[in-house]
Design goal:
The chain is of the alpha/beta class and 266 residues long. The protein is built from ten helices and eight strands. An eight-stranded mixed β-sheet has the order 1-2-4-3-5-6-7-8, with helices on both faces.
């Protein structure tokens, strides 16, 4: 484990492996180095061509969590990682991590190119939007020590899981690990902003992004992800759009790795 120091003094824990151009993997909600085997597998598959950095986003795993939270602090965390990686980096963003990665590029960080997999936008009526008070409510539940309830609320309101499946989830050992980072669910809600409310994406939020972007979704995912990916591609400048056949939101690293390898090589 290595540590990068963000602008506000927060220590951000990361691992690096391999050699070659720098690549930083940006997790979505709940993900961190100890809770994302897919991320570790992806890093292993790419380390022959890239210096791959996996890290714990602020408030997760071995990273610090200086209050108050703001999305800008997470962008500064990525800035510190890019500096530690040599000054420039490719970014791969998964789910809400894709939105954070794109925001970092929009803020002028030294991003070579980006691959974004299924940013969880809700831009139409293909599924219910998040409740207007979702961010406040999920944050309050965690702050009150009701971490299990916060996770359940995330799983039903944000992920769209039927409530009747929650009982079985509580029995899985992974549920306790999700509880440990329940307070960061509000952070991801802040990253998403109003982009899960069932309305079109803001046309200018990422207008300053000049780096090449590949937006991908899975062919077996809910149609909401394809709609969101199409909407994002429509507002970016230098963009490619692809669908990975047979994949869901839980994308197979063996399928994903060649896509990243090819795109980042150009």
């Amino acid at each position: 484990m290595e540590l990068a120091t963000s602008r506000d003094g927060t220590r951000i824990a990361y691992d690096r492996r391999g050699s070659g151009p720098a690549l930083i993997l940006v997790d979505g909600a709940r993900g961190h180095r100890a809770f994302n085997p897919h991320g570790a597998a992806l890093a292993d598959l790419l380390q022959d061509a890239f210096t791959v950095h996996t890290y714990d986003r602020r408030g997760r795993g071995d990273s610090g969590d200086t209050a108050p939270y703001a999305v800008e602090r997470e962008i500064e965390d990525l800035e510190a990682l890019i500096r530690a990686a040599g000054g420039r980096a490719h970014l791969f963003g998964m789910s809400s991590g894709a939105v954070l990665a794109l925001d970092a590029a929009a803020h002028g960080l030294a991003v070579e190119s980006l691959v974004l997999y299924e940013p969880p936008f809700i831009v139409d009526g293909s599924r219910p939007p998040l409740p207007p008070d979702y961010a406040v409510r999920v944050g309050a539940l965690a702050a009150d020590g009701r971490r299990a309830e916060a996770v359940e609320y995330f799983m039903t309101a944000a992920v769209g899981l039927p409530a009747e499946l929650l009982g079985g989830m509580r029995e899985d050992p992974s549920f306790a690990r999700m509880e440990q980072v329940a307070h960061t669910l509000a952070y991801d809600a802040a990253v998403m902003g109003g982009t899960m409310s069932g309305v079109p994406l803001p046309p200018h939020r990422w207008a300053s992004v000049t780096a090449p972007v590949l937006v991908a979704d899975g062919g077996k995912s809910e149609h909401t992800f394809a709609d969101g990916a199409d909407a994002l591609a429509a507002v970016l400048r230098d963009v490619q759009r692809t669908t990975l056949d047979g994949q869901t939101h839980d994308v197979d690293p063996e399928v994903l790795a060649p896509v990243l390898r090819d795109f980042f090589a150009h």
